[in-house]
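Hi Y.,

Following your request, here is the sequence exactly as I used it, all 626 residues.
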Amino acid sequence: MADTLPSEFDVIVIGTGLPESIIAAACSRSGRRVLHVDSRSYYGGNWASFSFSGLLSWLKEYQENSDIVNDSPVWQDQILENEEAIALSRKDKTIQHVEVFCYASQDLHEDVEEAGALQKNHALVTSANSTEAADSAFLPMEHEPLSTMSCEMLTEQTPSSGPENALEVNGAEVTGEKENHCDDKTCVPSTSAEDLSENVPIAEDTTEQPKKNRITYSQIIKEGRRFNIDLVSKLLYSRGLLIDLLIKSNVSRYAEFKNITRILAFREGRVEQVPCSRADVFNSKQLTMVEKRMLMKFLTFCMEYEKYPDEYKGYEEITFYEYLKTQKLTPNLQYIVLHSIAMTSETASSTIDGLKATKNFLHCLGRYGNTPFLFPLYGQGELPQCFCRMCAVFGGIYCLRHSVQCLVVDKESRKCKAIIDQFGQRIISEHFLVEDSYFSENMCSRVQYRQISRAVLITDRSVLKTDSDQQVNSVLYLVHLTCTSSKTAREDLEPVVQKLFIPYTEMEIENEQVEKPRILWALYFNMRDSSDISRSCYNDLPSNVYVCSGPDCGLGNDNAVKQAETLFQEICPNEDFCPPPPNPEDIVLDGDSLQPEASESSAIPEANSETFKESTNLGNLEESSE
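Below is the corresponding structure, written out as C-alpha cells. Let me know if you'd prefer a different format.
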C-alpha cells in the first residue's frame, strides 16, 4: 500500500519520463534501493502514448488541472527548526494553448461513445493558463524558418494481438515540408532546434464505412483503441544511443519495434519519396543519371569525411547549406542532402555538424531496413515503461497517483534529506531526481523555457499513396507535426497543414477527385522544452537534487540517454550504466550450498535469459541485413 512505504531509500525519482525511467532502471540494476513516484495516473509524463479515448481523457485532465488551487500546506508541522522545505507544484504547466477540432461527420451514437469522448459539435479547448506560458517562454523570432516532417503508418496490428518478435517491418513513412516566408520548400525532420518534425504515427487501422467515402466521428471513437497517439513523436536511429542501450540492457525484450519504410519530402507543391539506399538512388526517377553519380560520390565522401580534411577545411565557419553550394551538386541534390539526409535547416548547422549528421544517417541505413529509423510499435510511451519494468525487476518500488508535497532540506549542509508525500509520510533518501515540471514557479523564476508546437491529425488517406494503399477500401491515418514554437501551436503549424491537407466537409465527401488528404480530427498544443537548461538557473537547488528535463524538439532520443547517463555517473560514479542482467548460471549467492535459496533467487534472472535470446535475435537482424 502507498501509505506503508519503507521510510528510507537510496534514490527517490519523481516523474516517470524517459530520462527518469532510464536512471531509475540503472540505479536499481546497480543495487540501489529506488522509489519511483508520479502524481499522474499513467507512465511517461509528456513522453506518454494514449489511445484516442485516452487522449481525450488526457485533454480533459489538463483542462481540469488548470483550475487546481494549491491548498494550504499541511506538512509544515513536520519541518524541524534546522530544516526548510521546498514546496513542489501541484499544477502541470508544461502543456498550453490546447485546441481541438473535429471535421468528421457528426453522428455520434451512445453505443459507441467512450470515456472522454468529445461532444458532437466542433470542439475547441483552450488551456486556461496559456497566457502564463506565453509570458514566461523564450520563443524564436517570427522570421526564423519553419519546417515540418510528417509520418504515416498503415497497420492492422492491435496491441492485444501483437507478435512476440523484436522487430517487424511495416508500412510507415516520413514526410517533410519546410516553409520559409512565401517559399514552398520542404525538408525531412531535423534534430536542430529550429526545425519542425512531423513524426511517426503509431498505428492506423482500416475501418468499414457506412457510406462511400464517408467517415464519421463515431467511427473514429470506435476504432480509437486500435492505434496509439504519442504526446511527443520521435524516431529511433537504428544505431542511436537508445537502440544501443535497449540491446545492451536487454530491455529490448519488453517492446516491439517497426521500421520506417519511406522518407518523403514536400517540394514545389509535390510530395516525393527520398532515395535512401544505393538501389533507391539508381532507381529514382527524380534524378538524372549525372545527378545519381554526383550524389553517390558525395555520400561516399561523407561516410569517411574525417579522412579527407582538405575537402572541408576552410569551410568550418560557414553553414552546411553554404558548404553544399561549393560542392559539385545541383540545387536538387543540395536540397535532398540538406533536408532529407542531414535533416537540418539552411541556418541551423555548421559544415562539420552537417557532415556528421549525413554520416550518421548513412551509418544507420540497412541495419534493420531500408531507412535509418525505427519506432516502438505501440508508441513512444512504451519506452519509459520498459525501463520502469527493468527497475521493478531489480527491486524498485512504483507508485502512480502518488504526489510529493515537498523536499526537506537541511539548513546547514544545504542538502535534501527527505520528501513528504501526500499522506504526510517522511521518506529519507540520499539522492533525489525530479522532473522539471514538478518544480514551483519560485524555483524556476530564472529559467527561460523554449516551447514546442505540436499537432496531431487524423486523416483519410496517405500524403503519397502506394500500390498497397489502392487495395484498402478506407483507412485512418495518423499524422504528427512538431516544430520549435514562435507563436501558438495552431499559428505555427496551420500554414503547413493547409498546404498538405484539406478539412473534411460534407460538400467534398462525394468528390472523388480531391487530391489532398482530408482532415477528420485535429489537435494543436504547445509543450514545454526544458532540455539543455543549466542547474544553476534553478533557485537554491540542493546539491543532491538532480533535474530531469522533458522532451526536446529533436527527432531522436539521444538527449534523454545522454542526460540519464550523466546523472547516473554523478550518483553512482565508476559503475557500469545499465549492464545486461546476469544469466542464472552465473549467479553466486552467499550460502550457495543451500539449494532452495539458490533456486528461488534464480527465478527473476531466468526471465532475463529469455530476454537475452530475443535481444540476440535483434542483433542477428543487423548481421543478416548488413
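The first strand starts at residue 8 and ends at 14.

Thanks again,
Q.
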